[in-house]
């Protein structure tokens, strides 16, 4: 089933093999191994119980006597479970010990904050300063541990990237640290795994794992863009709004979109680095044009969904905190979408 | 034999809706979900999203003119779905990131929606 390829939620929860059984990193893979071992043990014990039941009902007299004897209770009821459960516990703790290893402080750090109903993502430098602000998308380097500083701005959320790690709660007033590491490149979906009210079910995000060198380039380029200041007369972002057919007339103008963005009030909630648009209530839009998804991991990112989201986000994600801008004309929506697409 | 010939002779032209297969409609559905046409359009068979920025496409097979401008044929519909501003200058709907073949599949889905 090809369920929305750019939907982080679908990528996190659907597919074959199921994402939770398809680890893409060391932390997820120890959890998956443990899950399979417990499942196998469960199957074995169930098999033994069914066999014993069969013997007790239909087995030969001599076997039935043995099964009902005191010795069988001691062995099957006490010794066997004690040995097996102790063994599994010790093995399981050893296997998953890496999940709780202390953070060394040398790992790259990304702060992920749960909001109603999206994820704020901030990349930190070694000194702990925010160098890139983004939203609903997490970029990771291959084979390098990264510590996610999990926070919440409001209620309890939980971050879950089934391919990469177990769930961890985002609790108001606390910082929970989750180490993740990816051992293959690609896209992995994530979701909020703790009911947080309203459109909780539509709160997802996308993780992209790059080769380490590509990641370093990505981070450096984005940090440079975030540090830029755009002079008041300029339009932020590349001016390129290349139509599909070069012969077709250019219909929407990013410059006009920028003016509308400022004057319609978008800037009150959304930031675009280096400009007077510095609202922090909603997702940072400095790189929105290069994101894979819109609406927090729920829609693919193209002009159609951008226009649909701005015009009527309330019918797509009912209750979300962005109002439907149904007072904008189709023309104005097109200009704004063209402008946002240029924010790479 | 004469009957057979008559039937063959009556076979509708290839551009007719009845030649659109169920397979194409199913592929079209996958395209619709991938691109998320539902962001702006309510469509039978698509549970989410059900955006209302654009017109509802319920009962599309009975619509006379696409976007009030183009005769409702599969060819026109596929062209419109893929690049609306080119098919109907001034259209509000933007071009979609789909191939020509995918656009035909989407058209098949829109005609095949059984919502009567």
UniProtKB/TrEMBL annotation, chain A:
Entries under InterPro entries matching the protein: CcO_II (IPR045187), CcO_II-like_C (IPR002429), Copper_CuA (IPR001505), Cupredoxin (IPR008972), Cyt_c-like_dom (IPR009056), Cyt_c-like_dom_sf (IPR036909)
UniProt record, GO biological process: ATP synthesis coupled electron transport
Localization of this protein: Membrane
Cited PROSITE patterns: COX2 (PS00078), COX2_CUA (PS50857), CYTC (PS51007)
Keywords: Copper, Electron transport, Heme, Iron, Membrane, Metal-binding, Transmembrane, Transmembrane helix, Transport
Reactions listed under catalytic activity: 4 Fe(II)-[cytochrome c] + O2 + 8 H(+)(in) = 4 Fe(III)-[cytochrome c] + 2 H2O + 4 H(+)(out)
Domain (Cytochrome oxidase subunit II copper A binding): residue spans on this chain: 105-221
GO MF annotation: an example: cytochrome-c oxidase activity
Gene3D superfamilies: Cupredoxins - blue copper proteins
Top-level taxonomic group: Bacteria
GO CC term, one of those recorded: membrane
Transmembrane segments: 34-57, 72-94
Sequence ranges assigned to domain Cytochrome c in this UniProt record: 252-344
Family: Belongs to the cytochrome c oxidase subunit 2 family.
PANTHER family found in the cross-reference section: CYTOCHROME C OXIDASE SUBUNIT 2, CYTOCHROME C OXIDASE, SUBUNIT II
Protein name as annotated: Cytochrome C oxidase subunit II
Lineage: Bacteria, Pseudomonadati, Pseudomonadota, Alphaproteobacteria, Sphingomonadales
């Amino acid at each position: 089933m090809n369920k929305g390829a750019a939907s982080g939620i679908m990528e996190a929860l659907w597919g074959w093999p199921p994402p939770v059984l398809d680890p893409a990193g060391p932390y997820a893979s120890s959890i998956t191994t443990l899950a399979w071992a417990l499942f196998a043990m469960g199957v074995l014990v169930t098999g033994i119980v069914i066999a014993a039941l069969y013997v007790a009902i239909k087995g030969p007299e001599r076997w039935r006597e043995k099964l009902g004897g005191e010795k069988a209770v001691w062995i099957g009821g006490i010794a066997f479970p004690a040995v097996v459960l102790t063994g599994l516990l010790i093995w399981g703790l050893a296997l998953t010990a890496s999940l709780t290893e202390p953070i060394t402080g040398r790992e790259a750090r990304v702060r992920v904050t749960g909001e109603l109903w999206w994820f704020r993502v901030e990349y930190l430098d070694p000194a702990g300063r925010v160098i890139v602000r983004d939203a609903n998308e997490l970029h990771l380097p291959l084979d390098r541990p990264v510590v996610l500083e999990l926070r919440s701005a409001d209620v309890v959320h939980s971050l879950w990237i089934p391919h990469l790690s177990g769930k961890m709660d985002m609790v108001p007033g606390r910082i929970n640290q989750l180490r993740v590491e990816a051992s293959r490149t690609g896209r992995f979906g994530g979701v909020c795994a703790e009911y947080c009210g309203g459109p909780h079910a539509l709160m997802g995000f996308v993780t992209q794992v790059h080769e380490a060198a590509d990641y370093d380039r990505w981070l450096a380029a984005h940090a440079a863009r975030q540090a830029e200041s755009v002079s008041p007369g300029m339009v932020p972002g590349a001016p390129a709004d290349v139509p599909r057919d070069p012969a077709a007339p250019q219909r929407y103008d990013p410059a006009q979109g920028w003016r509308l963005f400022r004057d319609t009030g978008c800037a009150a909630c959304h930031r675009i680095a280096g400009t007077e648009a510095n609202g922090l209530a909603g997702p940072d839009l400095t790189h929105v044009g290069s994101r894979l998804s819109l609406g927090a991991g729920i829609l693919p990112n193209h002009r159609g969904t951008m226009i649909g989201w701005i015009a009527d986000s309330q019918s797509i994600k009912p209750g979300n905190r962005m109002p439907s801008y149904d007072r904008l004309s189709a023309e104005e929506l097109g200009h704004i979408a063209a402008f946002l697409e240029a924010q790479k | 034999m004469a009957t057979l010939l008559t039937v063959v002779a009556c076979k509708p032209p290839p551009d007719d809706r009845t030649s659109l297969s169920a397979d194409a409609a199913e592929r079209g559905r996958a395209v619709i979900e991938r691109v998320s046409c539902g962001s702006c359009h309510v469509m039978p068979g698509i549970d989410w999203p059900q955006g209302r920025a654009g017109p509802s496409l319920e009962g599309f097979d009975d619509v006379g003119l696409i976007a009030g401008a183009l005769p409702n044929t599969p060819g026109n519909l596929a062209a419109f779905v893929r690049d609306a501003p080119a098919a109907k200058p001034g259209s509000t709907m933007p071009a979609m990131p789909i191939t020509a073949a995918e656009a035909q599949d989407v058209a098949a889905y829109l005609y095949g929606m059984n919502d009567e």
